[in-house]
């Protein structure tokens, strides 16, 4: 990471337009201090709906306008891109470029946060208590079925939507770490089948996978998303990767990036993807 030729990027950042703690300009200024080449903003979006942590509908134009203003003001020091972390919710919201056409985003991150079961849904990255309660209420206590539904939704998203980067592709693993009792066995045959099926769908969709250090920054995980097992499968299928920190605070913009480089090297990767206005490129690591 000390190589001056290295193109340092982060496409997964949240500011005060959604649930971030810092203004977009504050994050841009911090990114410049930390030697970034490209910073992409990805406010949470449930378009055409919203929740308490998604960007409100009435603020979409203001968000896009501010990010593009910053792109002009800081053009000589940093490339600033305007994107969305767009949620996939069956029959409600899709991370598809056509759906976001009026905002002309530079890129989209497609993510699954909500796991829908019988009569309701819960957030995959909610608290341990809320996840366990959601499994009890909407999956009759069957954690395996809830996890399988999560990956099914990801595959639906990949098959039905056109976006650029898939966000934290095994987010459901968040509450399988540092808790009193694991929700499920990551070594089970059924779980590995889900990983293989989802990796195949990712490869077919032609999207990039983020190595997401956000769970580490917030103290939930000891390593990034996706897991080492999942990452090896993705490498075997030729899926490109990029490093994002899912930053909600300035100080997390490049959290554990050096560790993430070593992490992807251990999986067999020799290149890292980065995104510009004309698409994806790669650089050696």
Largest sheet: 7 strands, parallel
For the residues shown, what is the average pLDDT?
A: 96
| Structure classification | alpha/beta
Distance between the termini: 9 Å
Rg measurement, Å:
18 Å
Q: How would you describe this protein?
A:
With about 280 residues, the protein is of the alpha/beta class. Helix content is about 35%, strand content about 20%. It has eight helices and eleven strands. It has helices at about 25-35, 60-75, 130-140, 145-160, 190-205, 215, 230-235, 255-265, and strands at about 10, 40-45, 80-85, 105-110, 115, 120-125, 165, 210, 240-245, 270-275, 280-285. The strands form three sheets. It has a seven-stranded parallel sheet with strand order 1-2-3-4-7-8-9. A two-stranded antiparallel ribbon has the order 5-6. α4 (about 145-160) runs parallel beside α5 (about 190-205). It is globular. About 45% of the residues are buried. The model has no long low-confidence stretch (mean pLDDT about 95).
